[in-house]
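Give me structure tokens for this 265-residue protein.
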Amino acid sequence: MKEVFVFPHCSIPEDLMNLVSQHFHLNICKPWYMEVVEKDARVFFPKEELKPPEYFLNLLQEFKNWMMYQDKGNVLFMIAEKEVWDFDETPSHIKALIKGKKKEKDKVSKTLKWHLILHLATEFELSQYEIDSTISNLSKKESPLQAAVEDAGLLDPMFRDISDSRTDPILDERVMLEIATAWIMLFKDYVPKDSFLFTFNKGIFFLLKSQFENFLINNMSKKQEIPVKEEKIGSTSLLQLNFPALIGEKDLISEFLSEKRLLCI
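Here you go.
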């Protein structure tokens, strides 16, 4: 079986774990202080020098509490868009906590930002995946009024028009790229050059495809579409991208993807 790195996720839903672990050896990279729950995967944490100070747990809890009454996508956007220390829209207790740590070295502040993004994105992603799966299952069921209506065709499937974040992302592209950046900055040294990467979000899959192709056009004056290959594993489609090798100067994401293969289920 192929060995794959889950990217840029830091956890994987249980139903997908059961499916994917039948076909791949999974490596899952987690930021410090994230609970380990995946029993069928090999888990990596960032290097010790990238471990945030202990007060990170207090900061994380403050943001989690805030996310309970704010839109989670907006919280992630704010962290991705600004340096963590520049928030003006957070509650006073978060600002006070951040202000007290403002004089930490730049490396530490960036490490905190990467860890915050991955912790909060993982919580958002798993809860959203559960919602999407529930809606998807309900949409396949007949309406409870079906038997009472003579012309069954008059009834549309339940939840038919509700979008699925696994194919129609609800996070801003900038946020998704910041999640990928945070993951790369913390874990890139663990991932060999010719590795297989695995995502369970088609939005991320095609965003990374587009980013790499745009890099080729903008920096190498080379228009090249990276073909998507498709194969079946059981009854499920598996998509694959083979990123070509790059030479010369590269941006962080393109350099990381160079010569790697990205899979999506």
